[in-house]
Amino acid sequence: MDMTHAKNNIRQLDVVALTADLPDNGLTRGQVGTVVEVLAPGVFEVEFCDDEGRTYAQAALRKAQLLVLRYRPQPAA
User: Fold this and answer.
1) Phi (first) and psi of residue 27, to 5 degrees
2) pLDDT at 2
3) Confidence class of residue 77 from pLDDT cuts 50, 70 and 90?
């Protein structure tokens, strides 16, 4: 797989963190969620759950508002 392609795309089930506060949604920068649906190019439905798996927020977010969290080493850009 092309690593550039993998690093630049957000996909369903990716774990992401917010890059900005979203006070209207009750969310703050750094909160972690899961992409549950790709709504349109660059727009994603993200679900935020507590430690017991209960959803406390869900929002449609733009790519610029998200940082994909990686669990394996990735080559630097």
Assistant:
1) -120, 145
2) 43
3) low
Amino acid identity for residue 1 in this structure:
M
Q: Which amino acid is at 19?
A: T
**Structure-derived torsion over alpha carbons of residues 13, 16, 21, 25, reported in degrees to the nearest 10:** 10
CATH classification at residue 43: 2.30.30.40
The answer to whether 38 touches 23, Cβ cutoff 8 Å, is no
Number of domains in the chain: 1
How confident is the model over 1-57, as pLDDT tens digits?
344 445 568 999 999 999 999 999 999 999 999 999 999 999 999 999 999 999 999
CB 20 within 8 A of CB 66: no
Residues 6+ apart with CB under 8 A from 48: 27, 31, 32, 33, 55, 56, 57, 58, 59
Partners of 22 in the β-ladder: 27
